[in-house]
# Entry
Amino acid sequence: MRAAKYFLCGAALAGLVLGARLESAAQDVTYDQILHSASHAEDWLTYGGNYASQRFSELQQINKTNVNQLKLRWVYQLRRTGIFESSPIVVDGIMYVTEPPTTVTALDVRTGRPVWRWSADLPKNLLTIGLFPTNRGVAILGDTVYVATIDAHLVALDARTGAVRWNVEIGDNAKAVAITQAPLAIKGKIIVGMGGGEGGLRGYIDAYDAKDGKRLWRLYTIPTTGEPGVDTWEGDSYKYGGATTWNTGAYDPELNTLYWGTGNPAPDWNGDARKGDNLYSCSLLAIDADTGKMKWYFQFSPHETHDWDASEPPILFDATIDGKKRKIVAQADRNAFYYVLDRVTGQFIAGKAYAKETWANGLDEKGRPVENPNIDPTTKGNLIYPSITGSVNWTSPSYSPLTGLFYVDTREQGAYYYKGHPTIDPANPNDIGGGGGQKLVNGDAAYTAVRALEATTGDRKWEFKMVGDSWTGTLATAGGLVFCADSQGNFFALDADNGKPLWNIQLGNSVRANPITYAVDGKQYVVGEAGNAVSVFSLP
Amino acid sequence: MTANRWLRTAAFMLAISALTAMPANPQANPAAPPHSPHPKATPESVAAGKEVFAGTCAGCHGVDGSGSNGPNIRGVGAQMGPEGVYTRIRGGPIGSGMPAFTALDDATVWKIVDYVMTLGHEDAGVATGDPQKGKAIYESSKCAACHAIGAEGGDLGPDLTHIGVERSIVSLADTLNDPGHNLPLDTGLQERSAYTGYVVYRVVMKNGKAFEGMRVNEDSFTIQLRDAEGRLHSVQKFDVEKVEPEPGKSFMPSYKDKLTPAQINDLVAYLSSLGEA
# Structure
């Protein structure tokens, strides 16, 4: 039945869908639409495709039987070059894509022609400590597009014209706060985190009123004096301990709970001046969306010293485990372990390594790593797996409710970790020592792969090996496909059941953005971004 | 926000192009602000620079400058000179993701410069031959058929324009005697360095055909190789039975029996003079 849902009825249904869309105000997205994004599969309404951040599309016009016929439809070349990592939003025939460092461009999805463009007015002395000046996407709610700027503002733009409706500062860029993530729009609120933890910051996540930009709440990710958990930081290290919130999280509307990962503690590679677990760094936070209060936390890597942020997008799904229906939040962490948690309570259900790691002898019954001895960086260099890039990084995995598999682009690589000076000087944010350094272990043993994990256990079902690095993430579709790409420029589709490659095209430059899919005029499109171009494909 | 941080192969490539194309690149960093003159480099300044480098630069460039998530900068000192390196540190190549290190004091930046200037030099061996004779041997041996110096020469083998900076005396002599013995193998996830592309691979197709070549490119679906005559072979991996490196093998002939030890010394002396700042 799922197959019939959107496309088997062909042009007639496509016309109906299109007609229904035209009756509503163009580029006007209600909370209800996002809530039921599966019923609006022709659009791509949030960074992660839906609130569960599954990056799964119900569209199935492009499927296993015909994906090898995909043809290029149009290409949009960015006007602003740089590191291009944007995951577009598509609504009512308009694609909103961001260009580095912070430009929003609205494109006609039928032709790729620009409709409007807005660029942030950035300071000449922009500080981007430990990050590249880029932007990963926008949020949309009502007829407003929301973008977080590299200099830490949240800006609301008229979705039809790009005119600025409001612009609020959410962090001090002079103190290294910088934002690259896409905000998340929920009912009446815009949720956005921040980055720049290597500059000596205390991380936080904010909610803003979608109408006027008034801040509704702020949750600091590191406790302060008098709060529980501050004793997990030595001395005053909690004041500049990082734990930023630099990647977009997920949302459960029924539980009214946000799920957001936190970054590494600072300084990265030398934890001598911050002894303790360093709560709530390298953790997943469950946050009440109305109040900003933390409901629970789960720390993946206590007292972390390898730069393994826990900022990988979490995915929400429901499953029956041991005969019991569970609401799950799953995360393939940068630390090489895959975690299955109860998203109501934060209880650890299952977890195991999904890539090579040498720092822990598994997880205990509560999901805490059983750390091996001597895993910290040393002055002479300590070889540990995974590398600083982690087993996966900021790119998004996907989850297919049809296969029950979790698809993650995985890196098999170690690094020598070196120890340096242990403190951060907040008055000197350019001194980004990070407490040491690292050197990647290359060679033939290092490789990347798309891996399919059983979502409730983390057991590997298949892998597709890639040559070179991968900074793409995955897209799963009801057509039985998983789309991914590699740093050599191949954009490709795999059979979601067994990983067999079914289609590929060379796009001519490294692909560094999550693929998405959408439909217009009854035709499904997939979007691949390589170099500084958006390339869009469909069946002939 | 570390994801972005040290770890970017593509960024990495941009940074490399920014570095290598500096004079003509409109995005290159602006001129450095007025600054103190370069104090004479000393072993102490190099050591101090190395320490700062380890904490401040190694995250992207690797602790020995050979690259990590940022580009390999070994040898850039010879290409850019101390002033160029200083300017790059102060200004940051715009668009590459490298920040402008404006908060470091001049003395510290110059120490980093002193250390960076040492990267790429290998203190192994002293040239004892005659570089002028070596130049004549280079020409009579027709090395330029495969190698370029500046704009002159072929491209089947490595570009030798800066070989004197990049390789030690011992390494140059070893390579002339046994060209394949120390070729670095594939560097895995990261882009290959200038020399890993010269490893000979044997490709066996599913239809039984086989050939040898040096990898020009390899990605998840295709491989392109150049054979000893310079011809390009491009194959789809689903047609390939196996691709195997042949360690120790090189398309370059050994000169052990073609030249006398004295001639090898002269040729090494000439090669080691190439690329000096």
Observations:
- The interface with chain A takes residues 1-11, 13-14, 54-56, 58-59, 62-64, 66, 68-69, 95, 97, 99-104, 185-191, 217-222 of chain B (CB under 8 Å).
- Chain B has ten helices and seven strands.
- Strands of chain B lie at 148-149, 152-153, 200-205, 210-218, 222-226, 232-236, 240-245.
- Residues 1-30, 190-194 of chain B have pLDDT under 50 and may be disordered.
